[in-house]
Amino acid sequence: MKTRQLFAIFGLIFLTAMLAACGGRPGAPVAATAVPDDEPATETNAEPTATRPSQSGVTILADGSVVAVKPVLAVSFTASGRLLELAVQPGDVVAAGDLIATLDDEALLDAVTNAEFQAAQSELNLTQAQAELDRLLTWEPDETAVALAQANLTAAQAQLENAQVSDSVAGNSVTQANVSVAQAERQLADAQEAYNTAFDPGREWELGDPFRKQFLENERDAATRNLQFAEENLRVARANYSLAVAGINNDSSLNAEASVISAQQALENAQKPPTAEQIEAAQLSVEQAELSLQQSQLSLEQAQEAVADAQLLAPAAGTILSVEVAEGAMIGAGSPIVTMLDTTQLEFHTSNLSERDLARVAPGQTVQVTLKAYPNDVIEGMVVRIGTQATGTVGDAAVFPVIVSISSDELDIRPGMTGRAEIAGE
Predict the structure, then answer these.
(1) Percent of the chain with pLDDT strictly greater than 90
(2) Residues 136-160: what's their mean pLDDT?
(3) Residues 6+ apart with CB under 8 A from 154
(4) Among 199, 273, 289, 352, who pairs with 126 as Cys (CB 3.0-4.6 Å)?
């Protein structure tokens, strides 16, 4: 007992000397205190006193505050658009993945619908192309198809024979019409020659002879009438010829010949195996259909991602600090919508731990933290690291921050709260 009293007296003398060395200036920063484990701090010692030489088995006291491990986070959309809805307000606590805001996605949903249709159509095209390729690769003559093609060819040939008989009759009509045209042309040539003779300028002298005049005038009248008749007769003959020819061109024999050709091709196709060129073309069609499907699926994924980007989700748990925009506003990609702070990961940072006690502090040491907000609750912690740079001085000693990890599910601990840490020194 006497030894402990002597130890306390010596400590008090040393502390008085240290205060005197610092000049006893009012309001000067106070360094953390190293207190022996067997002599805890009293209630009258509200603030840590200046550090004295540390001894084995002491508890180091230091003031500080609660700090969030992660910095304030500005949350934004990766797309642009009109802000349709805000789902949070300042002070709201959100979990990772909670909805924060939504953009107007009507046009984006239409794009998804169109992309889905294109993808379905591409998939159908691929199925059809693959079926055709499989048919060519596994080709075997179809007896039923061959027999049907042969029957169709026989029927088409019979129809052609019937049409040709009908055309022979029409051909006679064309021949007759052609002869009539030739006759009309000869008659017109004769009439033209007679007209030219009657109206020969060298015969004008006959008009002065009373006897020859009447004869010439009658000759000219007859030549004019005959020429006009011959021209009309030729027009009629040519019209009849055109009608006869048109009758043959529009005759059923043309359709019958086309039917025969089509039936012959169908029979050949039914009997002939696919060529290498046809198989290669079918393989190319399949490859093109596969590429088209891939492109359609990529477009669909992009459209779906655009719809997903229209919903802003909380990237982590935390508290909404502020809302930066209003509903209905046009926003750009990257523009902050809200700012939030992750309050689930907290640390206690000391503010006045003297460099004299650093040798007794190491990561992994246990720490008891008492906050002013909860003076009757002790929060367990552990030294995580020691700051590499001093944050100030107290007297002639520098102070270094000690970072302490803390956690408590029972207390509402918030960044900025202040308190005191008791570190079990080595």
Answers:
(1) 44
(2) 85
(3) none
(4) 289
Longest dimension (CA), the chain: 189
Q: Which domain holds residue 154?
A: 143-271
In a domain, 5, yes or no: no
Clarify whether residues 208 and 318 are in a common domain: no
Cα within 13 Å of Cα(364), Cβ side = 2
Same domain flag for 217 and 157: yes
Q: Which two structure tokens, joined as six digits, stand for 409?
A: 């599910």
- Do residues 151 and 197 share a domain? yes
pLDDT confidence of residue 157: 83
Number of Cβ within 10 Å of residue 366's Cβ equals 12
β-bridge pairing 392-394 and 374-386? unpaired
Query: Environment class of residue 280 by beta-carbon count within 10 Å: exposed (0-12), middle (13-18) or buried (19+)?
Result: exposed
Closest by CA position to 36, among listed 412, 379, 347, 360: 360
> Is 4 inside a domain boundary?
no
Q: What is the pLDDT of residues 325-370, one digit of tens each?
A: 999 999 888 999 999 998 888 999 999 999 999 999 999 999 999 9
Q: What is the mean pLDDT of residues 362-384?
A: 95
Domain boundary residue, one of 293, 319, 336: 336
Which helix (H) or strand (E) is 175 found in, with range? helix 143-198
282 with 190, same domain: the answer is no
Tokens of 419: 């308190």
Strands (DSSP E) contained in 229-373 are 311-313, 318-323, 330-331, 336-341, 346-350, 353-354, 366-371
What total number of domains does the chain contain? Answer: 4
Q: Averaged over 142-146, what is the pLDDT?
A: 82
Q: How many CB atoms lie within 10 A of CB 243?
A: 12
pLDDT band at 38 (very low <50, low <70, confident <90, very high): very low
Residue 18 within any structural domain of the chain:
no
Single out the residue of 97, 62, 108 nearest to residue 370, CA to CA: 62
- Nearest CA-CA partner of 369 in 394, 389, 393, 350: 350
Band (pLDDT 50/70/90 cuts) for residue 422 is very high
Same domain, 324 and 350: no
